Amino acid sequence: DTGVSQDPRHKITKRGQNVTFRCDPISEHNRLYWYRQTLGQGPEFLTYFQNEAQLEKSRLLSDRFSAERPKGSFSTLEIQRTEQGDSAMYLCASSFTGFGTEAFFGQGTRLTVV
Amino acid sequence: DAKTTQPNSMESNEEEPVHLPCNHSTISGTDYIHWYRQLPSQGPEYVIHGLTSNVNNRMASLAIAEDRKSSTLILHRATLRDAAVYYCILRGPTGTASKLTFGTGTRLQVTL
C-alpha cells in the first residue's frame, strides 16, 4: 500500500462548473476524513466516514458539497456550481478507528476557481 | 472541541534541539495529544502522540506535563528538512471527538 492517494492533484475550473475529487485511503482503514485548507490556515474539517456511513458534516459543508464513500472504500467529494471562494486545497485522510490512532493524509487536490 | 494554544512561529539553528510548546488547559481525561507537521506543498504528516506519559519515536519526543495542561514537542537535532508548520491537536477516543481539529500551528524556521 502506498498511502492515501488523491486525484487529481490540481484542478482549474470556471465558476459555476461542477468538480469531483477522488480519495483512495489506505485499504485497511475504516475512517476517512475530508479537510479544506486555504493559504496560511490550518486544515478545516469538512466531513468524515466510518466505513460507508457519513457520520459528521461540518457547517462549512454547504448544500453544494456532497461526499460519498460507496462500499467503504474510496471516497468522492463533489462541489456543484463552484464559486471563487471554493478555491483551496482539499485534503483527504484515513485512519483506523480506535484510541489514539494516527491519521495519514494524502497530498491534496488544489482547486482553483476562475 | 478542546482547544490548543501554540506560538505562531519559532526559529532554530540547524543541529540544535527545538522545543515546541503547546497549551491545552481544557483537555479532558480521554483526549490524546497529537502532533502533526506540514511541510510546504504537502499534506500533514503524523509526528507523535501520547496520553499521559512521555513518548519517544524516531522523529521526536513528546513531553507531557503532569497535569496534562501543556505539552512540548522536542526535535533533538533540527535539520533544514524539519522546517514546517507544527500542529498540536487534542483527539478524543470515539465519535466526532476523534476527528482532528487543526489550529494555525507553529511555523518552525531552521537556519544554517
Verbal overview:
The complex is a heterodimer of chains A (114) and B (112). Chain A has no helices and eleven strands. Chain A has strands at residues 5-7, 10-13, 19-24, 31-37, 44-50, 53-57, 65-68, 75-79, 88-95, 104-105, 109-113. In chain A, strands 2, 4, 5, 6, 9, 10 and 11 form a seven-stranded mixed β-sheet that branches. In chain A, strands 1-3-8-7 form a four-stranded antiparallel β-sheet, with no helix packed on it. Chain A is globular. The termini of chain A are far apart. The mean pLDDT of chain A is 93. In chain B, β3 and β4 (45-50) form a beta hairpin. In chain B, the strands form two sheets. Chain B has a five-stranded mixed β-sheet, with no helix packed on it. Chain B is globular. Chain B is mainly β and 112 residues long. Chain A binds chain B through residues 4, 31, 33, 35, 40-45, 48, 55-56, 91, 93, 97-100, 102-108, and chain B through 32, 34, 36, 42-46, 49, 51, 85, 87, 91, 93, 95-96, 98-105.
Uncertain runs of chain B with pLDDT below 50, 5 residues or more? none
Determine the number of helices of chain B (DSSP H or I, runs of at least 4 residues).
0
- Whole-Å distance between the termini of chain A? 35 Å
User: Roughly how many Å apart are the termini of chain B?
Assistant: 38 Å
Cα-atom Rg of chain A, whole angstroms?
Answer: 13 Å
Give the C-alpha Rg of chain B: 13 Å
> How large a portion of the residues of chain B is in β-strands, by DSSP E?
35-45%
User: Could you state the oligomeric state of the chains shown?
Assistant: heterodimer
> Main sheet of chain A?
7 strands, mixed
Please outline the major beta sheet of chain B: 5 strands, mixed
What's the arrangement of secondary structure elements?
The complex is a heterodimer of chains A (114) and B (112).
Chain A: E1 5-7, E2 10-13, E3 19-24, E4 31-37, E5 44-50, E6 53-57, E7 65-68, E8 75-79, E9 88-95, E10 104-105, E11 109-113
Chain B: E1 9-13, E2 18-23, E3 32-38, E4 45-50, E5 55-56, E6 61-64, E7 70-75, E8 84-91, E9 106-111
